[in-house]
Design goal:
Length: 258
C-alpha cells in the first residue's frame, strides 16, 4: 500500500510536465534601439521584430505597464519613434500580442544627455496688449483688482505617436503660476529643468486667469507667438528679448547655454 501512495505524486508530476510542454508558446519578440544614448529632443527609433505576426502593440515611455493597444497588422517588424526632453535614464516598455493574443513585454533603457540643449531659467513680461487697463471689468477703475492676473504658457512640439515618424504634437510644456493684478511679472524657472534644442521653436501664450477661465492677452487669434533660439547660437546671450510691437508685447527669456 505504501508503494502505491508514493507512486501517485510521481505520476502527477510527470503528467503536469508533459502538458506544460505541449501548451508552451513559441511567440518571441526582440527590440533593437537605434541608439541607447541620445541628447535632448534628439529623435531615435526602436525596431521591434518577432517570429510571428504582431497583431497588437502598446507602448509607454515612463516605465509604466502598457495597456492602450493599437490594433493593426504590424507584420514581423515594426519601427517605433521617440524623443525625450528631460535628462536621465528612460524606460520604454513595449507590449506585443500575436494573432492568438499571446503577449510579451520588452523593456528598452535609453540615457538622455544634455548635448547642446539650452536651459530656460526665467521669464519676465515687460508689456502686453492693453496692459494697465481693466481686464476684470467688474471692479471699479480705482481698484487694482481690475488688472490682469497674468500667466504665461510655453508649448513645445514633441514626438507624440511612436507608430509614426511624422506625427508631432504641440504639447503644453510649461504653465506658469499667475501674478495677481499684474504683480511682479517675473518668474524663476530654474528648478523646472526646461531643456530644449536651440534649433527648435516654442509657442508663447499669455492670459489673464480668473479661476478656470482665461482671457487672451495677445489680441489673438492666434493666441500665441512663435519664438526660437537659433539666431543666438553664436553670441549665446544669457537673456533674449522678444518684441512684437503690433500688440505691445515684449518679454525677456533667461537661458543657460551648455
Amino acid at each position: 500500500m505504501k508503494r502505491i501512495l508514493y507512486l501517485f505524486p510521481l505520476l502527477f508530476c510527470m503528467c503536469t510536465s508533459s502538458d506544460d510542454t505541449t501548451n508552451q508558446s513559441t511567440f518571441s519578440v526582440a527590440t533593437a534601439p537605434s541608439k541607447t544614448t541620445v541628447t535632448i529632443d534628439e529623435p531615435f527609433t526602436v525596431t521591434v521584430t518577432s517570429n510571428e505576426t504582431m497583431k497588437w502593440m502598446a507602448v509607454t515611455k515612463d516605465g509604466s505597464d502598457p495597456v492602450d493597444f493599437s490594433g493593426s497588422n504590424f507584420g514581423t517588424s515594426k519601427e517605433l519613434y521617440f524623443n525625450f526632453d528631460t535628462l536621465g535614464t528612460k524606460t520604454i516598455k513595449i507590449k506585443v500580442k500575436n494573432e492568438k493574443e499571446e503577449e510579451t513585454t520588452k523593456t528598452v533603457l535609453v540615457t538622455v544627455t544634455r548635448g547642446n540643449a539650452i536651459k530656460i531659467t526665467g521669464l519676465q513680461v515687460k508689456s502686453f496688449y492693453n496692459i494697465n487697463t481693466a481686464w476684470d471689468s467688474e471692479y471699479p477703475a480705482t481698484d487694482s483688482n481690475r488688472l490682469a492676473d497674468v500667466s504665461f504658457g510655453l508649448v513645445k512640439q514633441q514626438q507624440s505617436n511612436p507608430f509614426s515618424s511624422d506625427y508631432f504634437n504641440n504639447s503644453s510644456w510649461c504653465r506658469s503660476t499667475f501674478k495677481e493684478n499684474q504683480g511682479d511679472l517675473t518668474w524663476d524657472l530654474s528648478s523646472l529643468n526646461l531643456f530644449i534644442n536651440p534649433n527648435a521653436s516654442l509657442r508663447f501664450g499669455l492670459a489673464d486667469i480668473d479661476g478656470q477661465l482665461g482671457q487672451d492677452l495677445l489680441n489673438g487669434p492666434p493666441d500665441y507667438k512663435t519664438i526660437s533660439f537659433s539666431s543666438y547660437l553664436a553670441a549665446k546671450p544669457s537673456t533674449i528679448t522678444y518684441s512684437f510691437p503690433e500688440i505691445n508685447l515684449e518679454f525677456i527669456v533667461s537661458v543657460q547655454w551648455p
